[in-house]
Backbone:
């Protein structure tokens, strides 16, 4: 079959029918990503492919480094076309890597270019894509895949002006796109190892909240006040990235001590840091629960293991890795504590290490029934390194076997690139393929209505109902 | 293909021939389950489907909670038909979950009902199944799948009168079904965190053994005496459920201290609890070895993580999860110690976390040769959460690659429901499918006799030879 | 299809074309194995099949023990034909285990015998194979698969005379086979738990290096001097086997203390042992980096868990297992330290526990770009227990998804047997099957040149370029 043919990943007729008939036309609720609010609010036009593809994508940077490209042509001073050429030389070496499929899907879906990218085609593709980019503002990219909502990831100290600006357009009927911020207070605890960075951030938070932070109480108070701004801007979720939930009981005294030390420029001990982590997470969880928001927990990265690159390029340079921290005891204790007190919000658990797949799926099942709805606690989509065909298939299979696929809120991009919505297409094709295969082999009933309902929920309906973002009616 | 068609899960002609010709007609030795000895001895008739399906099945409870069913309709006071309706509404949401397949296999195999269960068919199925249940005592359910032996799971303090009652019938030629108890002394160490529960249990043990327990020695002595009762009742195995084997050397003094503290109503420290765990396990292992019994180790659950449900419903409510305790060091030390002293009994290792699959398969291989027979140490069947198609395929593949499929004692239900023997059918179909596929692709010789022998051993013959239960000759 | 038919493992026409047209004829660079330098230098003739197959192969010993063969017929005093008969009886019980496929591939490829080995054919195969063995010196076995290089595994204290002898023949144009030693200084730290063994080894090292070892400095100095001998003998790599990299900073004082204690016959504490491990590894890494050698890290075995067998048979008796030590923190710290100081050599990371597959693949990606070449840090081939179809497929898939298959240095035997090169054949078939399947399904472009280049690199070209062994020009 031709590369990326119309039935790509759809290995059976039922799958093809489900995808083209049901999944493909559905809108997208991309409830967690790292898109730029500014670029969306201003409907940014990217000057060239390097800008939109390579300027912030550490997936591609890793691919280029593995292929032996010099850092000057990755994050360094080479000019945009030189960087693009380096990428073009890398792409043929990425056969079987998701970057290879994504790259060509993006060229086809957004630009109608079905050439294979290589050093031989680099110039032709560069010219044609750049020509089109001049007429392709970011929101038209989103519209290509019927994106109804963009859930950005934002620091409590961030100014939400761009969200307000888009919201104003939305209310005025000038756009059907929603953009909701996500409350991500990680700096409050993750930066404790670097008191200078932590205090700089606290200063920004004080400005944003217009409150002095001189204690645990005032830190939590400032976060609470910042959170109200997020609510006004349409937020429906918080997000938290950490290596693991500390396996200890909350201890406000220790957490207060962490804050005092950090304010003085000292690094708190691990117990204090863990205590502050729990205070921030528990406070956020309760706010979430009170307002029907969703809490997202992204667990088990190990950050910045390559100190040379960290120094040269900064964080998010492509040298974070999977951790092998033990997850279940701390997480079960955390969820159990909230549940026991009646404060467990809707929660999505994401694991970065696939060895924890089944662990997470099963754990989610132990905390259902805290809310009245289906899938109160979710095991989230294959994430980051796992966001590829094999990772998605394993997650869908493990969720099906150990949990409930029909309640799944589905895919998200987690991406910095407005072209990355091809990943939703990949997810939908894979989902349809798996469901179709099961139906055709007699594992599940070959009842088109039942199957279409399952697919439709996991691609769009569940996310719409679960988060309550208030999608524009034009999306159905 | 139609849902659950005759060649369900059998993707190739060799598989179909192996299943229908060899595996399907074989009897079942269900050497580990949680069926009720009383119901089997009394040949219980279930009043309705809710009683036989929903009254004790935490797999289904988890499915219902995930679908948003209220607890009143799961473990609460709703009437039996209301609960059944709630289950019927849940089933279509379980597509791709093993509960969906099992439910419909059970309706077909036991009741000849091939409707899809949903709220629309709930009443019709309820009426028809209940009508049939009135003429379907539990032993006729077992006979449907040619069950030759039921291995129940019993506390040392349990009265074994029901086992004796059935045994009397067996000896009198009135039934060909055997029911053997399994000696499971978990309470002796697992309950140490709750001294009141521990002492209540010790009181029951004292009554059962007619011995006073006031020390480590007398505790082990009471267990030894209780075990003799199990031997009389036909037991051939012990069973142990714990998070992990403690990675320390046995220490009788610490264990004695654990007993003293617990008798006084205190919670022993972890080292003492670990020491008592090892004393109980080592003593049981030696008894097992001396009498040719089998020791089963079920490892890595984390129990009762949802304290709200534990308080409301009790243990086994569906809120146990997979643990991520490190397994190998403690387990290797334990097995190595027994082996070195010449006391290593036949042992079956079960892992709950599939990330440990290969670890367990390889470890089993390091302790073969302690006995004269093949497969002295077994890596057990996919268990609990892993008891589904994917879990079974992985276990069969990993065992094949890292150990010896031909020596495998095969499948068990581990179930509380007398209808759950469809799981043996699922296992047999999967096994035949995998063997058939390998033969048809040239991975193994396409020699029907060789293949049939392999399948026959792993489905029945090995379990018959390994445990030595004394199956009724009518089963062959 | 017939057992082991010509398109064995090749499920699609593209795969068949890639294998037979590209992969099959390529030479083999077996850069890591445990072949005997003496036997190769002397071009040894094996007296019988037991000698070449069973005398040192703990894979087969494990299979025989699992099948219930007595130790006398495995490692004991039974005569060679009795042992072979025991193996012949075992083979049919190994269906679906890689030993079954390897055994028959070896009989076919080396001896042209296509009988199935069993007790019935044992005598016929024994006679025919032994007849052929008399005319089949070890180098002719290697030539059967076009082996261009054998990378043996050697202790710093080993005499490298056999490597020199073969090298002399190579330089004189009498053979096109290269044999390079690999510098494996494990004893320096792994033997610290047994001071007598450690001091015996130190004595051997002193003799080999002609240096007195009385301190950390002189120990490292003796290793350095020994390493020079390896360089002269054509070595291009070091190799290190350990359970995990210690997660601590280097500490020369603690390491020096370890050496002092061990010299006095004492067992150093764990911190000291870890410190010495890091000193040895860091020193070797820097030497490797300076000379363009490759460092191989084989991680997470747990050795000799069966003490009975260790006492009876010695190390490497088949009772090592997979460990479940946490890997990533120590490893990331070690690689990060070397990288930061500019000393990170080409490195290959091998994990024994497949639960760590993705962890290792991702970690390798964080340290690319230290060198100018592609794949500076490699995630190594499926190793030891994982060296079978499923293990290889998972490794190839995980490497493709998370890293870069096109830069992969590919397969090695890690074997003690000169007949084990069928494993390269198995790897090549699997690789071609996977690449072909992706091309035929439209996942990657169906461009024969591109695919052949990918396969050719991963089977031969990358290893040739990466290690720089100086392969004989006749191999291309």
Residues:
């Amino acid at each position: 079959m031709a590369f990326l043919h119309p039935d790509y990943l759809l290995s059976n007729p039922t799958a093809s029918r489900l995808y083209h008939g049901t999944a493909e036309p559905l809108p997208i609720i991309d409830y967690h990503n790292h898109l730029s609010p500014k670029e969306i609010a201003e409907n940014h036009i990217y000057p060239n492919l390097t800008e939109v593809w390579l300027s912030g994508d550490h997936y591609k940077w890793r691919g280029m480094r593995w292929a032996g490209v010099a850092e000057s042509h990755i994050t360094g001073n080479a000019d945009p076309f030189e960087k693009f050429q380096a990428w073009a030389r890398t792409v043929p070496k990425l056969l079987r890597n998701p970057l290879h499929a994504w790259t060509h899907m993006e060229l086809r879906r957004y630009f109608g270019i079905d050439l294979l990218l290589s050093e031989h085609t680099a110039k032709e593709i560069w010219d044609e894509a750049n020509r089109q980019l001049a007429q392709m503002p970011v929101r038209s990219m989103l519209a290509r895949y019927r994106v109804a909502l963009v859930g950005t990831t934002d620091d409590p100290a961030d100014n939400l002006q761009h969200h307000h600006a888009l919201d104003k357009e939305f209310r005025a009927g000038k756009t059907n796109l929603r953009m909701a911020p996500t409350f991500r207070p990680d700096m409050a605890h993750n930066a404790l190892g670097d008191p200078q960075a932590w205090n700089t951030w606290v200063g920004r938070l004080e400005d944003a909240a217009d409150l002095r932070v001189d204690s645990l109480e005032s830190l939590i108070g400032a976060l609470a006040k910042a959170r109200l701004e997020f609510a006004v801007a349409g937020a429906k979720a918080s997000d938290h990235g950490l290596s693991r939930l500390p396996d200890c009981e909350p201890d406000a005294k220790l957490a207060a001590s962490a804050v005092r030390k950090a304010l003085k420029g000292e690094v708190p001990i691990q117990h204090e840091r863990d205590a502050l982590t729990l205070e921030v997470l528990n406070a956020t969880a309760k706010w979430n629960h009170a307002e029907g928001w969703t809490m997202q927990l992204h667990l088990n990265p190990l950050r910045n293991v390559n100190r040379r690159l960290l120094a040269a390029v900064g964080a998010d340079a492509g040298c974070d890795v999977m951790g092998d921290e033990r997850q279940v005891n701390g997480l079960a204790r955390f969820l159990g504590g909230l549940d026991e007190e009646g404060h467990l919000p809707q929660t999505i658990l994401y694991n970065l290490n696939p060895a924890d797949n089944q662990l997470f799926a099963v754990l989610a099942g132990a905390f259902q029934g805290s809310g009245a709805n289906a899938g109160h606690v979710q095991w989230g989509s294959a994430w980051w390194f796992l966001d590829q065909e094999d990772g998605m298939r394993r997650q869908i299979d493990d969720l099906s076997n150990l949990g409930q696929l029909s309640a799944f809120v589905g895919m998200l991009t987690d991406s910095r690139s407005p072209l990355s919505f091809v990943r939703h297409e990949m997810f939908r094709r894979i989902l349809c393929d798996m469901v179709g295969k099961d139906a055709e082999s007699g594992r599940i009933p070959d009842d088109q209505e039942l199957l279409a309902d399952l697919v439709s929920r996991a691609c769009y309906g569940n996310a719409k109902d679960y988060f309550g973002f208030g999608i524009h009616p034009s999306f159905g």
Q: What stands out?
A: Residues 270-291 of chain B form the longest helix (22 residues).
